[in-house]
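TEACHING EXERCISE
Course module: macromolecular assemblies
Task: Read the component lines below, then compare them to the predicted structure of the full complex.
Student: A.B.
Group: 4
Components provided:
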Amino acid sequence: MTQANSAAKTAVAPPDHSKANKAIGRRNLLNGLIFIAPNFIGFLVLILIPVIQLFYIGFSKWSAFGDPVFNGLTNWRRLSHDSNFTASFINTIVYSVVHIPLTLAIAFALAVLLNTQLKGRAFFRTVAFFPYITSIVAAAQVWNMLFDAKSGVINQIIKIFTGGWAPAWMGSTKWAMVAVIIVATWREVGYFMILILAGLQTIPGELYEAASIDGANGWQQFWKITVPCMRPTLFFVLVTLTIQSFKILDLTLVMTNGGPGTSTLMLAQYVYNVAFTRSDFGYSGTVSLVLFALCMIVTLIQFWYNNKKEK
Amino acid sequence: MTAASITPAAGAKSPSADIPFNKKPVSPAKIIGTVIGYVAMIAIAAFTLLPFIWMLLASVKPNNEVFMVPFKWLPSVWHFENYINIWTKSDMLLWVGNTVFFAIIVTFLQVFTGSFAAYGFSRIKFAGRNALFLVYIATMAVPWQSYMIPQFKMLSSWGLVDTRWSIVLLQAFGAFGVFMMKQFYDTIPEELAEAARLDGLSEFGIYSRIVLPLSGPSIAALGIITFTNTWNDYMGPLIYLRSQNLQTIQLGLKTFISQFNADYAMIMTGSVLSILPILVVFLIGQKQFIEGIATSGMKG
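Instructor-supplied answer key:
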């Protein structure tokens, strides 16, 4: 598009094309850099440089004072027999493996629901999105009170059905993770619902009309039209959701602080703990690199998978 | 799944001749699908709203009724005065003031630098543009949690920890704003800028006189999203801010919760107040908010 623009420029420029092109190229470069500079300088210094530094810090010894000192693979050997790291890694995976399909399925179902002619869907869309804009601190606090083992509303309801038994939620190493997943799903479903809905609305209605004339039922239309048309959207949603799940930090930090024990300690919170409670910045960099790698691997696998499917 | 039976044209059978006045004969499958659809919608809406309703009611209950067994929804006495007392019991006004200050500065910087850079990426063809943009996109996939430590050490070596600068710098230069604005600028016809260029308008003139006036809705969307993110940010202030007089609403609320840990009604009052402004912002700018998210995702 912009090539056409510079081509148009050369048409009115003096006959010496190569010289004119060079001048335009120089001017465009200057203009482009001027426009990008205010954001890029901030971005470079505050994001890009720290990301690059991470690769050195992860292989260094660095305490509260002084500069990082390269120590090769020492941190990585330590990682291999650090039970807290193993726990946080496994917790993050367990959380993601449950949270991702759960959120995706509910968000998809809700988006399909909102893509119909049902009355009140605008109100419903607003309501479903509420939790996503609610602050983590307030959300975690109210859910903690609802999940209260002795006299919380949730357990009072459960006890009606089970005749007195109810999970201990935040007081139990098994149930705390379940509670975290419930709250995280409650919070994020509305957001992914919006992304999926936007994708659904780009599917031309004629496809469904043609299919129903050909006698395809709703179930067949769903699998043969909706799902294939939604692949790019679902791909984007899956990548976002996966990365969002891997990097979970503030919800568990506020809601359970990783406990009881290490039962809800997540990778990102371990990074935070190692850095800010133990002042072991080098080792926290190593754990950060694991988190970084996890997100990158998933992104790459999904890119590769999507490319393959499209061929 | 109910999903299948309620896709747009689902269940529309060929018109049957024996019901002449009914233009669209409704099949039983469609009725069932609609009923299931409504039931699901109401159930999910109730589940979603329940914590909010509970929070609101708990905030005006006497403390001993918040955890009553068996639970009661409505308080015996309505303590609306909690919403007045909290301003003297806590530094709520200071927290709100600090947070509004951060949110406004960050939103302004994000919108200004983001739209400026997006114009460069979208409308000026220069060497290395695509490679540079790829770097932006790639860092969007890198979680902040993985580089927060080097970033913290860097800002602390500059002596910016526990200053207002730290939060502003932390939030203002995200790749998200650039990405979102570029998505929008790409849809503006090139001919508009082209005509202006032939008339001798500079790139900055084209940006400020032609492109910027057209981008009201996307700027509103980016502004609302950034404002919400900054208002709700907990980790940034937690790591960087120590002084009492710099506390933001999220940080203050967390401290308040641990100080008044038995004053349940007061805690819920604080929680309601921390959500309320964002709720209002969201309800006013809902259209832009949701459209902005739908076109570009959101920094999470």
